[in-house]
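Take a look at the protein record below and flag anything odd:
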Amino acid sequence: MLIPTILTITINIISRPTITFVILCLALLILGLVVAIRARGTQRKIIVDDKYITYINLLSTRKLLISEIKGHRIGGGVVRLIPISQLEKPIIIEHIFDFDNSDEFVDWLWANFDDLKNTDQKGEEKALLENTSFGATKDAVLKNLAATKQSVSGYNYNGFVLSFICFILVAISYIASLTNTLNRYYTVFLLLFPLYGLYMIIKSKGLISISAIPGNSVRPSVFIGFVIPSILLFINSKRFDTVNDKPWIWVGILITTAVLLLFYSTLKRRVTAPNGGELLSFLFAASIFGFGAARQINYVYDTSPIVVYRAKVLGRGERMNRSLHYYITMSPWGPQKEVREIKVSWNTYLFCESNDSIQVYCKEGLLHTPWFVVVTKK
């Protein structure tokens, strides 16, 4: 009984045009990946002779004199051969272990060239130990560094765990239609916790980083404790739709810029200049925090009265974008002067038919960006 039921459901799903299109796209994608992998395996080559290392792939051929190689950086299946001359570009070999005899090649690199990642870390550690602002002696600096790593570890752990606990509690309270007081406290936590991480960076005078790849540095990173609350802040802020995105976008840009300027003010105190990875990590984290904060503040701390409007469902549909999303098209209502398609939950979609009349609960928003919730009559 179970097998025929599963087969029936499967056939019904596959017979839907949207699902059929998605399956066809997936099949073509898988076929393209297989062809690309086969082509990469046959076209990519590493040739080592007495003078040169030559790397050949589908798009280019790179050649570097062995005597001109400064060293290597190896990690995550990627080999970077760094030339002595800054005018030369490094050779970057991805998926190194897809090659035949890759272990022998990597062992040869380790035996004949400097590990620049280790060299960079040693240079950074030396600069830290020689900086008297972190301690009068080397032992004092090492003790300070150990204590800093412990505090950063606690910050990251608490940020990860507490963020998800609060997120689950807010979701439960929202489903149960309880007061949004919990959501306000949760928002305060999500706003202050990343800023406390920024305060730790400033206070440390460069002993703490915000790199997304902390293993590349001897300094501990607050990236996890900063970015997890920022991401959850942004996700929580997407629960409601807004009539006009421009006001909160500008506020988001201002918040992001302020956070970036605070971070920039710490660079003058840094022992080592931040690398590109750390700057990109912080730009990503600050942007997520800034825009999430703007949206969340707009509706969580909005005390304006609810205004109820009526709109008409002009159509509905579903769309696959990594997962199945549901949409309805609404007629103009109140401050929304144009026909608009919005994403809705499965429950709302299920009870919305074309030509149905729906209610729109709208509030002005703290940042004067009206936000709304669609309510069905069924």
Remarks:
- The chain has four domains: 2-43, 45-112, 131-300, 307-375.
- The chain has ten helices and 13 strands.
- Residues 138-175 form the longest helix (38 residues).
- The two ends are 34 Å apart (CA to CA).
